[in-house]
Amino acid sequence: MNRREFVALAAAGLVSCALRPGSGNAGRDQSPKTDIEAIAFDAFPIFDPRPVFALAEELFPGNGTALSDEWRTRQFEYTWLRVVAQRYADFWQITEDALVFATNKLKLELSAEKCERLMNAHLNLKAWPDVPPALSALKKSGMRLAFLSNFTQHMLQANIKSAGLAGIFEEVVSTDQARTFKPDPRAYQLGVESLGLQRNQILFAAFAGWDAAGARLFGFPTFWVNRLKVPAEELDAVPDASGGSLLDLVQFLQINATSR
Questions:
Q1: pTM of the entire predicted model
Q2: Strands (DSSP E) along the chain, which ranges?
Q3: Peptide bond between residue 61 and the one before it cis (omega within 30 degrees of 0)
Q4: More confident of the two residues 32 and 200
Q5: CA atoms within a 13 Å half-sphere pointing along the CA-CB vector of 66
Q6: Is 204 helix (H, G, I), strand (E, B) or coil?
Q7: From CA 237, how far away is CA 213, in angstroms rounded?
Q8: How many CB atoms are closer than 10 A to CB 114?
Q9: Contact 46, 128 (CB under 8 A)
Q10: Is 48 a known active-site residue?
Q11: Rg of the chain, C-alpha, whole Å
Q12: In this predicted model, what pLDDT tens digit does every residue of 33-77 receive, in sequence order?
């Protein structure tokens, strides 16, 4: 995934708020997914990270985009490095470590107050505009909904409350439970264990291309919520379908508000 384009989302204001014909046609199979009983979501198909980037610009005028870019890049690199090195730290700690590194690299002065504000911004995220109607349709259809995220349990619960999504998700699973991070297969296995279903019965909804590839390699049917319209990763796996919003996921599953 091109993380520079991820950060550019803050400036470009790209968001898919309406279902667009053909937006889910990137996948291999557009037929109804009658065997899918549950959907496991990464955090960012649900939560909009743009306020964090806007705060970075507010606190470091003229450097917000560079800081956000470096911060997010290092954040995910640290998850992968720690898995390989078997030196686990949870995602909250990694997020702060990455912030410290990013400000040091850019020679920005990170006061305790600025650090606290930027970190706490990760606890007050709101939902993307397309999320409430899509989740409502999925929920009414009887689809089981869950989170399967690198976020810590505290981060997930805080943002569910902030986004007004309490009671929507049957399971809220953090990869912290296995002391690892996606795309480690052990991370995806937590979804199987938590939902008590087979892999082919759980659709994984990814934000990042690498996460979509990882979930597909694990064996999940996968829908890539490709809000940035970036190319698929060259990782020997492609999602079953992709689209620019969760409403495209609803269309892919051919779900309406009353029946599956």
A1: 0.84
A2: 38-41, 47-48, 126-127, 144-149, 171-174, 202-206, 222-225, 241-243
A3: no
A4: 200
A5: 10
A6: strand
A7: 5
A8: 18
A9: yes
A10: no
A11: 18
A12: 569 999 999 999 999 999 999 999 999 999 999 999 999 999 999
Contact 209, 228 (CB under 8 A): no
Which position among 29, 35, 42, 130 bears the catalytic label? Answer: 42
Residues 104-162 pLDDT 10s: 999 999 999 999 999 999 999 999 999 999 999 999 999 999 999 999 999 999 999 99
Q: 62-86: b or e for each residue (b if 16 or more CB lie within 10 Å)?
A: ebbbbbbbbbbbbbbebbeebbeee
Contact 249, 40 (CB under 8 A): no
Distances (CA, A) of 51 to 40, 48, 118: 24, 7, 10
Q: Do residues 156 and 149 lie in contact, with contact meaning Cβ atoms separated by under 8 Å?
A: yes
- Strand (E) or helix (H) holding 91: helix 91-105
Q: Are 91 and 79 in contact (CB under 8 A)?
A: yes
Q: Where are the beta strands (DSSP E) in 185-237?
A: 202-206, 222-225
Buried b (16+ CB within 10 A) or exposed e, 120-139: ebbbebbbbebbebbbebbb
User: What pLDDT is recorded for position 138?
Assistant: 96
Dig out the tokens for 190 from the structure: 């937590």
Q: Which residues of 185-212 are buried (b: 16+ CB within 10 A; e: fewer)?
A: eebbbbbbebbebeeebbbbbbbbbbbb
50-123, which class in CATH? Answer: mainly alpha
CATH 3.40.50.1000 domain span(s) along the chain: 16-48+126-253
- Fold of the CATH domain 16-48+126-253: Rossmann fold (3.40.50)
Q: Quickly tell me which residue has 């079953």 as its tokens.
A: 240
In the chain, where does the domain assigned CATH 1.10.150.240 lie? 50-123
Q: In 121-179, where does DSSP find H-type helix?
A: 131-140, 153-162
